[in-house]
Amino acid sequence: MQSKIINSPIGPITLTAEDGAITGLYFDGNAPYIPQNQSDKETDILNQCEQELAAYFTGNLKKFTVSIRPTGTPFREKVWDALLTIPYGETASYLDMAKHIGNPKAVRAVGGANHNNPISIIVPCHRVIGSNGSLTGYGGGLDAKQWLLDLEIKHKG
Length: 157
What we know:
- The chain is 37% helix and 14% strand.
- The protein is of the alpha+beta class and 157 residues long.
- The protein is globular, with a radius of gyration of 15 Å.
């Protein structure tokens, strides 16, 4: 596994990669301990991810192509796959996501899966809001969540 810390408009981000795929995107201070095993394959994928994030943060990238591999329970992975279906510049509620995965009573569990999303931004958990339209928790903080939503709305056109 290899990691790289990059600067972003919402603060430092730690990227992790293993076996040619991004495995984590963590906001400042939230990254786990990562042993450094250097590999050209990981360096390439980390650099690609950094470039795509830079383009995203300027509004020039609306869909990531970097290879990702989030790892979690089967339920969480199902939720994370569902998050990838929320279009750029749009939002969905936790209830919408629970219905999307075929379990409308799993609203709280969907929230837990969002909270444990290891690849924020690319797996767009910031696009999930409360049923009443309110912002709810986000690993990077509510200011970062609002910034990301505003960025996407501004460049949605």
